[in-house]
Amino acid sequence: MTEKTLTATPADAGDAGYNKALKPRHVNMIAIGGAIGTGLFLGAGGRLAQAGPALAIVYAVCGLFAFFVVRALGELILYRPSSGAFVSYAREFMGEKGAYVAGWMHFLNWSTTGIADITAIALYAHFWSFFSPVPQWVLALIALAVVLTLNLVSVKLFGEMEFWFAIVKVAALVLFMVIGIFLLVTQTPIDGGVPGPQLITEHGGIFPTGLLPMVLIVQGVVFAYASVELVGVAAGETEHPEKIMPKAINSIMWRILVFYVGSVVLLAMLLPWSSYTKDQSPFVTVLSHLGVPAADSVMNLVVLTAALSSLNSGLYSTGRILRSMAKAGSAPKFTGVMNRNQVPYGGILLTASVCVLGVGLNYLVPKEAFDIVLNFAAIGILATWAIIVVCHLLFVRKTRRDGLERPAFRLPFSPYTEIATLVFLAAVVVLMGFDETGRITLLALPVIAVALVAGWFAARRRIDMRAFDEEGM
Prior knowledge:
- The chain has a two-stranded parallel sheet with strand order 1-2.
- It has one domain: Amino acid/polyamine transporter I (Up-down Bundle).
- It is mainly alpha-helical.
- Helix content is 70%, strand content 1%.
C-alpha cells in the first residue's frame, strides 16, 4: 500500500485566537527550563547522601525515559501543533474522557506545584535577613501576585521571563562545572582531600549504600524532570514549529547528560558523597568548602529563580490546557476566555486561585505546606506522561491502519519504546509504596478518582464532541 502523507488533520477549536509571539530562543529556553530545576539545584544533595555516585546512573535512566516522553510528544506536535498539547491529542485518539482526565490531572499537577513553588519562594526569601520579619504567607502571596500579573500581560512577556530564568540557571551550572573541572585538572585540595575519581573508589565505589537506595530514589528523580512536557504547550504559540521543535526537543537529551549526569559525577569527584546533605544545595557545599564568599547567597538566588520559573510555566500551561478543555465543555466556560492580548486569563486565574489556598497553607502549617502539596503533584506528573505515551501509541496504530506516513521526526523503536516507558512509569508508582510520603500519595488516588468521576458526570451534558472543527475532520 502506498503511504499517504498526514495532511487533513483536525484543528482543535481551542487553538483559535492565539498570538504566535514565541520566538525560537524562547522555545529553546522553555525546553532548557523544563529540564533543569530545583530537583537538581537542591534535590541532588540529599539523593547523593542517600545513594552516593549511583545517583548519576539514576539521573541517566530517568532522563532517558523523560526524553522518550517528550520525543513522543514532539512527533505528535509535528503531526498537529496545538496549545492544547496532550489534551488535544488525548481528545483525538482517546476521546473526550481521555482529554478530560489528561487536562485535570495536568491541572492537579501544576496547581499543586504552584503551591509548592510559592512556598519555596517564601522559604528562599527568608534566607536573607532583609525578608526575615515578613511572614512566610505574605511573601508567598506577593510572589504569586507578581508572576500572575506578568503572565496575564502577553505570551511574549512569558517567553522573555522564561528566557532569562533559564539563562540564570544555565549560567550558574556552567560556571560551577568550569570551576569543578579546573579543580580536578589542577588537583587543588578541598578540605585536605585531592579531587579525582579516587574519591569514588575510596568511599565505597559507585554503589556505596547498595542497590536498594538507588532504586528507591527513582521516584524523586522522575519528578526532577517534571516540566519537560511544557515545550509541547508552547508549540501552539510559535511560528514554524516544524523547524523549531525538533531542535529544541533533541537538545533536551544532551542537556540532561551534561547538566544532571555530568554535575553528579563532578560533585562525587570533588568531595566524598557523604559530605552532601539534603538540607543544603550540593553546589553550595562544594563552594563553601572552598571558602568562596557569598556562595550560599548566589545559589539561593538561583534556586529562587528556578521556583519562579516553575510557577511561571505552571500558570502558562494550565491556562492553555484549560482553554482547550473549555471549548469542548469539560472545563468551566470562563476558563476559555481570552483577554485582548490573546492570553487565556480565565484558566490562569483558576490555577492562581488554587495557589491562593497554598497561601492559606503557608499561614496555617508553614513547615508542612511544601510536602503536603508535592504528594498530589506527583500523581499528576505520572498521569500526564502516561497519557502522552498512550496517545503516541494510538497515533502510530492509526497511521499503520490508514496507510498514512508519520512525520520525519519520530520516536525511535516504536512501539517498544512506548511499552518500556509505560512499564517504567508503572514501576515508579510501585516504588512510591516503599516511601512514607509516596504511600500518602497512593492513598490519595481513590479520592482523586472519585473527584474525576463526579466532575465528569457534572460536566457531561455540556460536553461538545465537535471540539475539532468539522472542516478538519
